[in-house]
Write a structure and sequence with these properties.
There is one protein chain. It is built from 7 helices and no strands. The protein is mainly alpha-helical. Helix 1 (about 1-10) packs across helix 3. The longest helix has about 55 residues, at about 170-225. It is rod-shaped and about 90 Å long. Mean pLDDT is about 80; it is low at about 15-50.
């Protein structure tokens, strides 16, 4: 199941993606403000745009997100099976609307309705949102541990350096040692902060790659499946 999910959501060569005529005319922009899709989890970045970002997503975070979807896979024919049918029509000479409607023909034989597809798609959006919240909480702990705590130490050390600079000549060697320590700690904080932010960017990129595809399908299902 996991390998199938990767084929559904992960594009190995993004430069080789073929856009349908309809997609070339206007790519849908799915926002968190969609009245039918509530995304209330806290966000690190201010943008509410869930379009798939450019560039290659981090395979590590893609795997984490897809394994969570796999773990929470609903029984029976739902959005994932519909997306698989939809993907099977990629090489067919069809416009976007025809592809979505054609894939739905098979879904109907399984007793599936557009409402059920949308409901199951929103279920997987919720799964991704849960993973996002878990990641944000873990990232907050890492920031507290690796950055904020060390900043407090840096402030205290700076005060000590300033005080000792006002003392008599015999303290100059100790002041010099503290200044060197100050630089080392500051450099370590900068490296830790950069590492944490890089990890955040990698996760958010992978998160938006997967979520963006689901949200695009949700928009198209609402548009074409009546």
């Amino acid at each position: 199941m996991f390998d199938k999910l990767k084929k559904l959501f992960v594009i190995e060569d993004e430069n080789a993606v073929k856009a349908t005529p309809a997609a070339k005319e206007a790519e849908p922009k799915i926002k968190a403000a969609d009245p039918d899709i509530k995304v209330n989890t806290p966000k690190i970045k201010t943008s509410a745009d869930y379009n798939t970002p450019e560039g290659k997503a981090d395979p590590k975070f893609i795997d984490i997100l897809l394994k969570s979807i796999e773990k929470n896979n609903l029984e029976g024919f739902d959005y994932l099976e519909y997306k698989s049918s939809l993907q099977g029509l990629d090489d067919m000479a069809m416009d976007e609307a025809t592809r979505y409607k054609s894939a739905f023909v098979m879904a109907k034989t399984m007793g599936v309705t557009p409402a059920k597809l949308l409901s199951s798609a929103k279920h997987y959006v919720g799964v991704l949102n849960t993973e996002e919240k878990k990641f944000i909480d873990a990232l907050k702990n890492q920031r507290q541990k690796q950055v904020v705590g060390k900043e407090d130490k840096l402030v205290a050390l700076q005060k000590e350096v300033t005080t000792k600079k006002a003392q008599i000549e015999q303290l100059k060697k100790e002041i010099a040692a503290n200044e060197a320590s100050f630089k080392t700690i500051k450099d370590g904080i900068n490296k830790s902060a950069a590492k944490v932010e890089k990890t955040n960017d990698r996760f958010m990129h992978a998160y938006k790659v997967v979520l963006g595809q689901i949200m695009t399908d949700v928009d198209n299902m609402k548009k074409y499946l009546k």
